[in-house]
Specification:
The chain is of the alpha+beta class and 192 residues long. The chain is 40% helix and 30% strand. Strand 7, helix 2 and strand 8 form a beta-alpha-beta unit. Helix 4 packs across helix 5. The termini are far apart.
């Protein structure tokens, strides 16, 4: 069932639990599912579904997650800057990480970051670690992220100034210097 305009999406069931409603006639059991969906290129969404059977609940949650896809900025495989996401009593600190660090996070937070396409990130839960609220807090944090290119354009300053603010300028300058140093070596090898 391929939808129009949607690339291949990765689905991940994060929370799956049995919930009960007590009525006059007894207890009604249902399955509650939370699913994270993402394309690994900056688009991610979460969805919730409830049904009598597990597969139906997962299908409902996946459908809602696909409808709720949002775009988030990715800068060199990590977050552009630090941010705190909040939902209920949960607070999640999301920090950029150096290349090769990986995603250091709890299971619900990791699911969202991987689905969005981040490869390196540091996280810390500062409040309640209720899985559902952590999911929502992480998504809220990602929605607060700003793209450095857009910020530079709006402020009318060079991108270098914005990257310096977030400690990224040094890395960019190091890459440029190493490229310039490698050029003379390559040219001398070609001439020999």
């Amino acid at each position: 069932m391929a939808e129009r305009g949607v690339t291949e999406l990765n689905e991940n069931v994060v929370v799956l639990k049995r919930v009960t409603k007590v009525t006059k006639g007894g207890r009604n059991f249902k399955i509650s599912a939370w699913v994270v969906v993402g394309d690994g290129q900056g688009r991610v969404g979460i969805g919730h579904g409830k049904a009598q059977e597990t597969p139906e609940a997962i299908q409902k949650a996946t459908r809602k997650a696909r409808k709720n896809l949002v775009s988030v900025p990715i800068l060199n495989g990590t977050l552009p800057h630090e941010v705190i996401g909040r939902e209920g009593a949960s607070k999640i600190l999301l920090k950029p990480a150096a290349p090769g660090t990986g995603i250091i996070a709890s299971q619900p937070v990791r699911a969202i970051l991987e689905a969005a396409g981040y490869t390196d990130a540091l996280t810390k839960s500062l409040g309640s670690n209720n899985s559902i609220n952590m999911l929502k807090a992480t998504l809220n944090g990602l929605l607060k992220l700003k793209n450095p290119d857009k910020v530079a354009k709006v402020r009318g300053v060079p991108l270098k100034t914005i990257l310096r603010r977030y400690g990224r300028e040094r890395k960019v300058l190091e890459d440029q210097v190493s490229e310039e140093q490698n050029r003379p070596e390559q040219e001398s090898q070609e001439n020999a």
